[in-house]
Amino acid sequence: MFEAVVTLCLSLADDLCRDVLLPGYEAPSAAACSEKLADTAPDIARFDGLTAKGDATCLPAGAALEVNEVAPGLFVHAGVVQEPDAANGGDVANLGFVISSTGVAVIDTGSTRAVGEGLWRAIRARTDLPVTHVILTHMHPDHVLGVSVFADAGAEVVGHEALPRALADRRENYLESLERLVGAGSFIGTDTRAVTLPVTGTVPLDLGDRVLELTAWPPAHTGTDLTVLDRDSGVMFAGDLVFDRHTPALDGSLLGWQGVMARLTDLDLTGIVPGHGAARLDWPEGAAPMVRYLDTLARDTRAAISAGQRLGDAIQVIAQGERDAWELFDAYNPRNATVAFTELEWE
Q: How confident is the model at residue 48 (pLDDT cuts 50, 70, 90)?
């Protein structure tokens, strides 16, 4: 398989360049790929602020992300449980896609366009059907910053009704922080894209022979959480409403998150795809560590507030009993304790 790429650089005088995938030109031969390029010239102008080093060309397809088929037609890539850095290239979140008879729906896209390109190649290795929708489960950059490759291919960008404002407010900070973490060269071509299909409440997304049920939740992990239930298989993409191994990250409401988890565990699901960790968890037993952590966080925070502890002292003890159950605990638990303390001190 061959694909079209263009070499983009930060500037003509800069040696920081990357071959950026141009979706939609895939073909079994270089000649066929080149014919597609000749028929429809790619829009390089969309890569604002970057310089093209030569024209688009056709090369053998690059590396695809590894995916597991966790249910018929439902594929998941499990990112590493690490902080984004140059070594892992920002491939730290679980991503997926659903193949129907008429097209493909992508769920989350990774920390960079390069990660999104790897997911695009994984899709193209399995089907040549169009990618019709890219669904973003929440605003965090490790789930949304690979979106451009799919949006550039014509996919509708789907998200919680609050996602457009949240991304607009945080875009510059997200781009700056992720570029610093993974490296400027690896980050080339990465940007957000506008949400074209905002979701309120619960709505069906008809993909022809299968339907995805999209639910926008009240503030919990964040204020933009969206789940995707594949009605055919009974498997739900939970985004970061559910963590596995990776310490949960509270960026919304602790009480809201506990309430959402209670509702999720009541659902009749065959399995769930967490935002980090395993590709698929059994349900509801897969919820037990998350529920326990949130309950411990709330209980210990209330105890610290009741004892009159200052925030700086409280975060040293809140939820410390959970330390051995989670990875990246020291990076995330102090933040969670701070958010929880700030919320619960006003109960």
A: confident
Co-location of 42 and 177 in the same domain? no
Residue 323 lies in a domain: no
Q: Residue 309 has which token pair? A: 């502890």
Q: Tell me how many domains the chain contains.
A: 2
Q: pTM surpassing 0.90?
A: yes
How far is 19 from 21, CA to CA, in rounded Å?
7
User: Minimum mean pLDDT among 54-58, 286-290, 334-338: which range?
Assistant: 54-58
Q: Are residues 133 and 99 in the same domain?
A: yes
**What is the pLDDT of the chain when averaged over all its residues?**
95
Cα–Cα distance for residue pair 180/103, rounded to 1 Å: 35
CATH code of the domain in which 160 resides: 3.60.15.10
Tokens of 342: 């700030």
The pLDDT of 181-194, averaged and rounded, is 94
Q: Domain containing 166: what range?
A: 68-248+272-279
